[in-house]
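Continuing the series of single-chain predictions for the mutant panel. This is the parent chain; the variants come on the following pages.
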Amino acid sequence: MLSNNPTDQVLVQDFLKGDSFAFEKLLLRHKNRVYAFIISKVKNSDLADDIFQDTFIKVINSLNKGKYNEEGKFLPWMMRIAHNLVIDYFRKDAKMRMVRANSDFDIFDILDDGNKNQEEIMINNQINSDLLKLIEQLPSDQMDVLKLRYFEDMSFKKISDITGVSINTALGRMRYALINLRKLAQEQHIDLQLK
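Parent structure:
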């Protein structure tokens, strides 16, 4: 029966209507292929776990923003997201091996290619300042996960160990932190986009 085995298209539509179980079904249906692809590229299970979690955060965020055009090709679209995140990891790894673990951390150091003009530097400094102010307004559990993930460069497994919650809870807190950051930026008319 169709209701017992809905298509990806039906599950995506159900998820967008608010059915969180629909996304769980999509995750269960495709997680092995996505994870196998990621591990085949990065050859490290902790790193693969992180990229796998980031893939699903990005899929959820993209679906919620309406950035998925239904063509019956959900799995290839999701695999492309995973592929792009693997590429991003290798680019970041090649550019930066050191993260300063203090309050002077600049999230845009990762993006800096050394060729910014003075105006770009000023814009990035302002965005960084605004971003840090917004982060401080998050609920503490969300702020902690976000800081550990991006400022301390920790895996979700390590974050779950440190905070004493499951990986899924840490992932959920991260998702809500990103959603709340966007809301706060919108409410306070703060533009966090690089020019």
